[in-house]
Amino acid sequence: MTVIGEIGERGLIERILKKIEYKSERVILGIGDDSAVLSHCQENKMLVFTTDMLHEKTDFPEILTPEDIGWMSVAVNLSDLASMGATPLCFLASLGLREDMSLNNFDGIIDGINECCNEYEVEFVGGDIDRHSELTIVGTAVGEAERIVKRGGANAGDLLCTVGCLGGSAASLNITKENKEMGDDLRRAIRERISVKKPRVREGIEIGKFATSSIDMSDGFAASLYEISDKSGVGFVVEFDELPVDPLVSDNDLDDLLYGGGDYGLLFTVREDEMGNIEEIEEKEISVVGRATERREIILRRDGIERVIERRGYDHMVKR
Amino acid sequence: MTVIGEIGERGLIERILKKIEYKSERVILGIGDDSAVLSHCQENKMLVFTTDMLHEKTDFPEILTPEDIGWMSVAVNLSDLASMGATPLCFLASLGLREDMSLNNFDGIIDGINECCNEYEVEFVGGDIDRHSELTIVGTAVGEAERIVKRGGANAGDLLCTVGCLGGSAASLNITKENKEMGDDLRRAIRERISVKKPRVREGIEIGKFATSSIDMSDGFAASLYEISDKSGVGFVVEFDELPVDPLVSDNDLDDLLYGGGDYGLLFTVREDEMGNIEEIEEKEISVVGRATERREIILRRDGIERVIERRGYDHMVKR
Q: Domains in chain B: how many in total?
């Protein structure tokens, strides 16, 4: 087995260059120089940047393949752009690699990055390679938007909507921890949820034209609601029966559903009279799950009973 | 002692927000949303991006203070922009932190980031915070340029120039490894070299108007020469007596001088008839050290004797 420590930085960069497929007209200079260069943007558009750190112990459970890991490192960043309503343009990756990583696994990660970049028409333009004690991938994505959607724009009366299901990623992690025998279908379903197989890029761009506020739900549904609530100065009433529960969530596991992190769906608000535009969006898995209120509480309504949703969720600094 | 694991992600972000000083008119949305947003760029300018991973075991020897580490994580990225001739605009940082890091050390790192951003008028606009087994900081810098300088533009006959001294960072690491008693002055000199106290931002912008090729010398003088040589299709003759040797380099330690990594000076080429413009640049520590040749060899001339400079330097994937 060849390990990457034998190949060296330059050799690895050569391998990456051979694998990159999607090329953008906007990119003047990609991998191989001190920086990547993009042609000037259209005058009416803003530039949008995001970066996300993923690493083995926290983010890459064993069930993931190297391809999943590569894909995920792009997808989580595209999700952050999507929540702003931005169109992604290019991607950079800082790769912290163990020197005893097999060349096969390295190739797999790059294949995954390439696949996700291809799918969403994003050019992989650069980054950094470093020896590290723990596999660590920090992606940076650059996008542009004519209109951006912040967390702080919701108004009382707006409809509260989700894109994608809730609780799937937390439920997937629980299932893998139980270490059950798993069929291929379940295994694939779990891998897809954890590795963010569907960053909501296209939906984010369309929703971004109309939404009043938006966030990706990577820290959990409740935490995301509180973010919009804090920044917008509104509360919410959420209808339990309207929540799009991921099929992997056990019956009534409210914890996964409301507080589980790792779901990269979108949570957004929209004026009721704009909802028609949202409903026309294709490829949608959009649910109207509640409404913004002047009262600052965040309420879950279920079978006629109202209770406050707790202010908690995934905190990247606190051990689970 | 308070450790950051007690504070949580949100608390740490609040602390960062209180410390950030430099605000740019170009930034529409900074820390606190899913992405950072910049207003559209001027029509005639290109956008330039770079990202760099630093981590404890490889990049932060014990002599560095938390402030040095924060400064360095910005400066290495500004250096990459400088080598393209780009003006930096904003900075993002993914912080991988041990949960038992003291809050004091965290504050120190943020102070260092803030200080470097202030010095070069760069806004700290976002990033990510994550628990990690090893302190890992991945910075991303965004800049713009009217004209960019690549590694591949040197022509035979061009003058070869450096900004800054050679070998200082490698010599500094050697001194710290010898564990000698150190006075305050030496200690400071070493910290300044390792933590890239002088990224060549202003020089890079000025040189970028005239240079035919450019690179930062972070992987060593020889490796950087070979990069320009390979990409430009030229060789070089280097005059030993003209090399700006860092005062910390031991007499005749050719290894530190030619092959030592971690010096973030610039190496560039310029047409001889443009050299007058370069000489007018202020704050300069510019040396003319040789000339590009049609012959593809890279030669060091010393006391009338010519020998080939070896093709080696700092490889981030190979253990030292």
A: 2
Once rounded to an integer, what is the mean pLDDT over residues B89-117?
Answer: 97
CB contact under 8 A, A46 and B38: yes
In chain A, residues with a C-beta closer than 8 Å to the C-beta of B231 are 32
Q: What whole-number distance in Å separates Cα of residue B68 and Cα of residue B51? A: 18
Q: Do B40 and A43 touch (CB under 8 A)?
A: yes
Strands A87-97 and A136-145: antiparallel
Query: Does one domain contain both B80 and B114?
Result: yes
Structural domain including A267 reads 159-308
Same domain, residue pair A35 and A95: yes
Q: Strand, helix or coil at B110?
A: helix
Distance from CA of A220 to the nearest CA of B (A): 14
The reply to whether B135 and B163 lie within a common domain is: no
A263 is a domain residue? yes
Show which of B145, B168, B202 is a domain's final residue.
B145
Asked if the structure places residue B69 within a domain, the reply is yes
- CA–CA dist B236, B256 (Å, integer): 20
In a domain, B154, yes or no: no
Which residue do the tokens 């992600």 mark? B9
Contact, B47 vs B62, CB < 8 A? Answer: no
Write the CATH number for B246.
Answer: 3.90.650.10
For residues A164 and A244, give the distance between their C-alpha atoms in angstroms, rounded to a whole number: 7
| Partners of residue B138 in chain A, C-beta under 8 Å | 51, 53, 94, 128, 138
Which chain B residues are closer than 8 Å to A38 by Cβ? 46-49
Pairs of residues, one from chain A and one from chain B, whose beta carbons lie less than 8 Å apart:
248
**What is the rounded CA–CA span in Å between residue B309 and residue A19?**
32
Do B138 and B171 share a structural domain?
no
Per residue in A169-199, pLDDT tens?
999 999 998 877 889 999 999 999 999 999 9
Q: Are residues A49 and A131 in the same domain?
A: yes
pLDDT in tens, A128-156: 999 999 999 999 999 999 999 999 999 99
Beta-carbon neighbour count of residue B303 at 10 Å?
6
Give this complex's ipTM.
Answer: 0.93
